[in-house]
Specification:
Elements lengths: L7 H13 L1 H9 L9 H21 L4 H9 L5 H23 L4 H16 L5 H4 L5 H21 L1 H20 L4 H13 L9 H4 L8 H18 L8 H5 L21 H15 L11 H10 L7 H10 L6 H12 L1
Helix pairs in contact: 1-3, 2-3, 2-5, 3-5, 5-6, 8-9, 9-10, 9-14, 9-16, 10-14, 14-15, 15-17, 16-17
Bound molecules: fe (ii) ion (FE2).
Fe (ii) ion binds next to helix 12.
Length: about 350
């Protein structure tokens, strides 16, 4: 599946941004744990080469440039390590660009799709799970099972699978910004990644419906939270994720589903996943609507503080996604702190 495409104007600005911030981006990736398997020098060469190809794709719209390059560069034994580097680089650019330029959600979607596409190209499905080292005794089981669940979800509906990966990423970022432990951050990534696993049983005509849902279809779609939890309850290695998946559509005011839980009765990580889910959905394009610009999505989140979403969690998103020097940002943050 082709990734969603930012406008030509955004592509050109992104290409310039990648060139201008190249050293910064490389330093961010090399400063993470990701390059360990390849070594810093090889990782540095690889990331620089990737940025060259990325600039080329962005500047001249050569959509095959990265695919051809990946095929030529990567040997199978290192595929997972290279895929991890590609993903880390996409994340670094996406995060830096958003925080510094505050541009549309198309940028996040573009890099999320590019990262997923690269992983598929490399035949790698385990990379997401590799960073989930929260319980060594369960790690191997979790890796295998999560990988299998995502593969099935991808077959049923690639868009839901990509969204799931993105929600995992955002959940982890929010957890980190909130100062949660590494173990909790990894748990948030896992829960975010699996939040919609119940959609595996949603009928295709509803799951892949290009328009807004109406009537009974809503009830059928809503069952995915309860069904997702039931699926995970039957998998010993993932049983602790079940309550989070069940509660990811609950609302602070008790108007959510399936249990109409209120406030602190909703597991905290479910509150994190709920915000990550909604935020990514807002800034993503849907067949029946355009993506919402990031600043408008932040306004939506702010408006739902205390009714739909947790105040601290929204505060963390605003802290992550804030255009440098934006007057409006200050207004947003003030509103949240007084809501
Ligand atoms: Fe959901």
């Amino acid at each position: 599946m082709r990734e969603s495409s930012p406008t030509q104007d955004i592509c050109r600005r992104l290409a310039l941004y990648v060139d201008a911030r190249r050293l910064d981006i490389v330093a961010t990736v090399l400063g993470s744990n990701v390059p360990r398997r390849l070594g810093t020098k090889a990782a540095s060469v690889f990331v620089h080469a990737f940025l060259d190809r990325l600039s080329q794709e962005l500047e001249i719209g050569d959509r095959d440039a990265i695919d051809v390059w990946i095929d030529a560069q990567v040997v199978e034994s290192d595929a997972c390590a290279f895929a991890a580097l590609l993903r880390a680089t996409c994340t670094a650019i996406s995060e830096k660009y958003l925080s510094e330029c505050g541009d549309p959600g198309a940028v996040v979607s573009y890099f999320s799709s590019l990262s997923s596409r690269s992983m598929r190209r490399l035949g790698v499905e385990k990379i997401v799970e590799e960073s989930h080292a929260f319980d060594p005794s369960k790690l191997s089981d979790r890796n295998e099972i999560v990988s299998a669940l995502l593969a099935v979800l991808d077959e049923r509906d690639p868009a839901t699978c990509e969204h799931s990966r993105a929600v995992g990423m955002w959940s982890g970022r929010i957890a980190k910004t909130l100062g949660l432990s590494v173990e909790e951050q990894n748990f948030a990534i896992l829960a975010g990644t699996l939040h919609d696993v119940g959609k595996l049983t949603t009928p295709s005509e509803i799951l892949c419906n290009p328009g807004p849902l109406v009537g009974d279809d809503w009830q059928t779609m809503r069952a995915h939270a309860r069904i997702g939890a039931k699926i995970l309850e039957r998998i010993p290695a993932l049983v602790d994720v079940a309550p989070i998946v069940r509660s990811h559509h609950e609302r602070i005011d008790g108007a959510g589903y399936p249990d109409r839980l209120e406030g602190d009765d909703i597991p905290f990580i479910a509150r994190v996943v709920s915000v990550a889910d909604s935020f990514h959905a807002m800034i993503s394009k849907r067949p029946y609507r355009k993506s919402l610009p990031v600043l408008l999505a932040l306004d939506e989140l702010r408006a739902g503080v205390g009714t739909q979403w947790d105040r601290d969690v929204i505060g963390a998103v605003l802290q992550i996604v804030q255009p440098a020097g934006s007057v409006r940002r200050v207004g947003v943050l003030r509103s949240v702190s007084s809501a």
